[in-house]
Amino acid sequence: PSVKGKVEFQEVSFSYEKEGTTVAGLNFSVKEGETVALVGPTGAGKTTVVNLLSRFYDADKGQILIDGHDIQKVKRSSLRSHMAFVLQDSFLFEGTIFENIRYGRLDATDEEVIKAAKLANADSFIKKLSKGYSTVLSQEGRGISQGQKQLLSIARAILADPSLLILDEATSSIDTITEMKIQEALQRLMKGRTSFVIAHRLNTIQKADQILVLHDGGILEKGTHEELLVNKGFYHSLYHS
Ligand code: DGT
Ligand code: MG
């Protein structure tokens, strides 16, 4: 792809409201292909960081660079064409499974959709549905489980083949077998592309190239799992609580 996926936040501040700040003075950089885990308590600013990166909101101060280019100078549509989102909900639309996966890349053939579904470990459950890939889904995904919804969204992202991946890990309980399928599919998806993960799973956090510990809209600590444990700071206390 034309975008390599190096990301830099330089003194980034932002507020959803006119007054006050939601995140302030964020500084960090991510090498191409790295996985960054965003951790921290509720309200810390994790979702805000990915909202700014994808320009759902624009920073009030500072700069966000992708491959050295200020993202505010790039059209939102072209910026997002290099990104894929695997979020907890609200990504399905009323249409067939074919159409829902193909949303990742509209010109993909049926064979390419099926190939992506196989890599996402979604093909086996889809084939068991009476209408298979032609099953019509509702926006709420009635008739398929939370875990199966996630496998579909991974299939969509695999098909899209983005340089940047934004992932919001599920907090809901998913059965062990589906969970293993999700984990395996995510490993395939994340390999070699810059990934921002709002991480809830210890396993993801431990494996990340970099962990950003957010608190009250700032970066409290950053480093690998091992580094943060040695620091014996906030992360260490989270881990041992
Ligand atoms: P989570 O998802 O509960 O673990 O929390 P985070 O870390 O994702 O927090 P985030 O970034 O959603 O929120 C940071 C702060 O910004 C928090 O005080 C709530 C506030 N906030 C978030 N979204 C909005 C919004 O759309 N409008 C306003 N006014 N404030 C928001
Ligand atoms: Mg959030």
Structural key phrases:
241 residues, alpha/beta, Rossmann fold, six-stranded mixed β-sheet, four-stranded antiparallel β-sheet, 10 helices, binds 2'-deoxyguanosine-5'-triphosphate, binds magnesium ion
Overview of the molecule:
Strands 6-9-10-3-11-12 form a six-stranded mixed β-sheet. Strands 2-1-4-5 form a four-stranded antiparallel β-sheet, covered by helices on one side. Strands 7-8 form a two-stranded antiparallel ribbon. With about 240 residues, the protein is an alpha/beta fold. The longest helix is centred in the middle third of the chain and has 15 residues. The termini are far apart. The model has no long low-confidence stretch (mean pLDDT about 95). It has ten helices and twelve strands. The chain has a domain of about 120 residues: P-loop containing nucleotide triphosphate hydrolases (Rossmann fold), CATH 3.40.50.300. It is about 35% helix and about 25% strand. The structure holds 2'-deoxyguanosine-5'-triphosphate (DGT) and magnesium ion. The site of 2'-deoxyguanosine-5'-triphosphate has 11 residues, from helix 1.
Secondary structure: number of strands: 12
Q: Tell me the Rg in angstroms.
A: 18 Å
- The span between the termini is 42 Å
Q: What is the fourth-level CATH superfamily of the domain at 1-82 and 199-241?
A: P-loop containing nucleotide triphosphate hydrolases
**Sheet with most strands:** 6 strands, mixed
Give me the secondary-structure category: alpha/beta
User: Helix content range of the residues, please?
Assistant: 25-40%
Strand order of the largest sheet: 6-9-10-3-11-12
- Distinct ligand kinds: 2'-deoxyguanosine-5'-triphosphate, magnesium ion
Task: Write down the CATH topology of the domain at 1-82 and 199-241.
Answer: Rossmann fold
Regions with little confidence, pLDDT below 50 for 5+ residues = none
* Rounded average pLDDT: 94
CATH class of the domain at 1-82 and 199-241: Alpha Beta
Beta content comes to 15-25%
SSE order, as H and E?
EEEHEEHEEHHHEHEHEHEEHH
